[in-house]
């Protein structure tokens, strides 16, 4: 149930200002920790700003949704919703200057496939990429534990797609005034997919987003379902809950409607800026990262060698003791 879930307790925020504050704090923390790398330059011009980081994340959220739409075999909508939520959550705790979204995006989708029980192997998953499939598989598996850790292992996502189905069934069952409830489906689903471009999943219960989708769909088609909401859905709770429900639906519709289109040229400029200021120790393509990874491999191999030598010495000692006792 959503109301007792980690999603409500830890990942549902009071308003957009609270989310924006978290993003600014993560950005400021990175700038403070890596300020010396600016080498006298203005930090605002050298490092990404919080606004630039958000634009970059929005670009990769768009690429994530596009990847999911084109995926073969076709993905259930829940995988797209879950992976998009993972990506948003990840960058509430991390800066894009530490972890580039191009790696985290694919890892979020692959992890969502597992959680939503959409069973594909890593090679089948990477077969949907146009190039560097083996490299992508290595990077996805290498980032999987990191993503789970940064999500605090709270991987169950309550998406808006399931309550939408529940609402449609409820309308068919309890609201005969609407003869063809299925005519609401297409526009309602489109609204839910558009909502993934906003922060709605970090602000509202899934059922509230689904209800906003149904109401939006009905109004688009000139249908009036006010009676369903007030009489059938709310029933005896109408007087106390109706004003809150109306205000919530308005907020959701406004947030989804106000998502601004991305500026491709601006995003490319941010990408170029990122290449200069990102943390090279966490960049899998940098020499610093590769040398650090190789040192780790060497240390692990050295530990294995020492263990093998220790076991060999112990075995030799036991054999000598046996011979001495004969």
SSE string, helices as H and strands as E: HHHHHHHHHHHHHHH
- Largest beta-sheet characterization: none
Specify Rg, calculated over alpha carbons: 25 Å
Tell me, rounded to a whole number, the average pLDDT: 90
Helix content: 55-70%
Report the sheet-strand fraction.
under 5%
Distance between the termini: 70 Å
Structural class category: mainly alpha
Overall number of strands = 0
Low-pLDDT stretches are none
Number of helices: 15
Shape: globular
List the helices and strands and how they pair.
Blueprint: H1 6-11, H2 16-34, H3 43-46, H4 50-70, H5 77-93, H6 101-115, H7 122-126, H8 133-150, H9 161-174, H10 185-195, H11 206-220, H12 226-233, H13 238-257, H14 264-277, H15 287-325
How would you describe this protein?
The chain has 15 helices and no strands. By secondary structure, it is an all-alpha fold. Helix content is 69%, strand content 0%. It is globular and about 95 Å long.
């Amino acid at each position: 149930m959503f109301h007792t879930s980690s999603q409500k307790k830890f990942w549902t925020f009071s308003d957009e200002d609270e989310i924006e504050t978290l993003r600014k704090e993560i950005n400021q923390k990175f700038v403070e920790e890596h300020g010396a790398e600016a080498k006298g330059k203005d930090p605002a011009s050298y490092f990404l700003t919080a606004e630039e980081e958000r634009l970059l994340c929005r670009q990769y959220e768009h690429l994530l949704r596009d990847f999911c739409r084109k995926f073969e075999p076709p993905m259930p909508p829940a995988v797209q919703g879950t992976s998009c939520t993972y990506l948003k959550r990840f960058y509430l705790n991390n800066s894009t200057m530490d972890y580039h979204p191009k790696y985290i995006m694919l890892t979020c989708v692959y992890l969502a496939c597992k959680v939503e029980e959409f069973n594909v192997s890593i090679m089948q998953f990477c077969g949907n990429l146009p190039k560097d499939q083996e490299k992508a598989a290595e990077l996805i598996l290498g980032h999987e534990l990191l993503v789970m850790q940064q999500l605090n292992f709270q991987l169950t996502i309550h998406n808006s797609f399931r309550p939408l189905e529940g609402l449609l069934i409820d309308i068919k069952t309890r609201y005969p005034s609407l003869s063809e409830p299925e005519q609401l489906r297409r526009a309602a689903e489109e609204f839910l997919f558009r909502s993934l471009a906003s922060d709605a999943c970090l602000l509202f219960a899934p059922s509230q987003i689904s209800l906003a989708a149904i109401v939006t769909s009905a109004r688009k088609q000139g249908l009036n379902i006010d009676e369903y909401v007030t009489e059938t859905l709310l029933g005896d709770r109408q007087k106390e809950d109706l004003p809150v429900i109306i205000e919530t639906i308005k907020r959701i519709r406004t947030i989804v409607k106000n998502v601004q289109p991305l500026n491709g040229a601006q995003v490319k400029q941010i990408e170029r800026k990122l290449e200069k200021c990102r943390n090279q120790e966490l960049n899998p393509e940098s020499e610093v990262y590769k040398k650090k990874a190789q040192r780790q491999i060497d240390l692990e191999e050295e530990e294995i060698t020492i263990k093998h030598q220790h076991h060999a010495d112990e075995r030799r000692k036991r054999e000598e003791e046996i011979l001495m006792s004969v």
